[in-house]
Write a structure and sequence with these properties.
single chain; 262 residues; alpha/beta; Rossmann fold; 6-stranded mixed beta sheet; 9 helices; 10 strands; 34% helix; 23% strand; globular
Length: 262
């Protein structure tokens, strides 16, 4: 489970995230949508511990990201929007390095590397230098590294950037398979069709505030009949002229006060 409890983060006088409260359920694929500058990447960086919120708390499976970062990181897999890779390593060397950082023994890491390389169709390229990889191959390698330790929570910023249609289909299928096995996935994306196809729920963020939270069907029910596609509904909610009170998200269930192991 991922819990955002009244998160606020500012840069100088700019409020990037404004009082965000949100609970992502165990085994759910949640998609956070919003225009450029809405606060999506800031939200994700706070969730994974790369930024500290000015106020509020984020918990991953009950672990407080700020107060107990080591335990929070143990349950987390993270795919950033601009991953950094060591180009002079081979794909295998990078995955071995990640496995060692995760404290995995050699036997377990070899099996996991073989599994994820097969899942992301990298097996034939593992012993080549990363500098020879295409952008899409690098993106798939980052996914493989994030999933090596079978994280309970996977957080992804713009997962489909640079992927060809075959790779997009592969990643969508693997994400749904992970969710089916119990992984909680939180992703931000500009690819509305992907969110519409695979997300269990969506949130629409604009100017740091959550303007909608629910399923696609709930979004359609809350909007005029002529707005039926996610694209048209998204544009209506983020055009800067809508009534934010009318578009406010439904009430959230009360967040647990103590640590949990969900």
């Amino acid at each position: 489970m991922i819990e955002f409890d009244n998160i606020t983060r500012t840069y100088a006088r700019h409020v990037a995230v404004d009082g965000l409260s949100l609970a992502v359920r165990p085994g759910e694929l949640f998609a956070l949508l919003g225009p450029n500058g809405a606060g999506k990447t800031t939200t994700i960086k706070v969730a994974v511990g790369l930024l500290r919120a000015d106020s509020g708390t984020v918990r991953l499976c009950g672990r407080d990201v700020t107060a107990d970062p080591r335990e929070a990181v143990r349950v987390l897999g993270y795919v950033p929007d601009e991953p950094f890779l060591y180009d002079k390593l081979s794909g295998r060397e990078l995955l071995e390095f990640v496995a060692e950082m995760r404290g995995m023994d050699r036997g377990a890491s070899a099996a996991r590397i073989a599994r994820e390389s097969a899942n992301f169709e990298l097996t034939g390229f593992l012993d080549r230098l990363i500098e020879t990889y295409s952008h899409g191959m690098k993106q798939r390698l980052v996914f493989a590294s994030a999933l090596l330790h079978d994280p309970e929570v996977l957080i992804i910023d713009e997962p489909m950037v640079g992927l060809d249609p075959r790779s997009v289909r592969m990643v969508k299928d693997l994400l749904r398979a992970r969710v089916a096995s119990g992984t909680t996935i939180f992703m931000s994306t500009h690819t509305l069709a992907v969110a519409e196809e695979i997300a269990d729920r969506i949130g629409i963020l604009n100017n740091g505030r959550l303007h909608f939270l629910g399923t696609m069907e709930e979004l359609r029910q809350a909007s005029p009949a002529q707005h039926t596609s996610l694209e048209s509904l998204f544009l209506k909610l983020t055009d800067g002229n809508h009534d934010s009170a009318a578009a406010a998200p439904p009430a959230q269930p009360e967040l647990p006060q103590g640590p949990s192991r969900d």
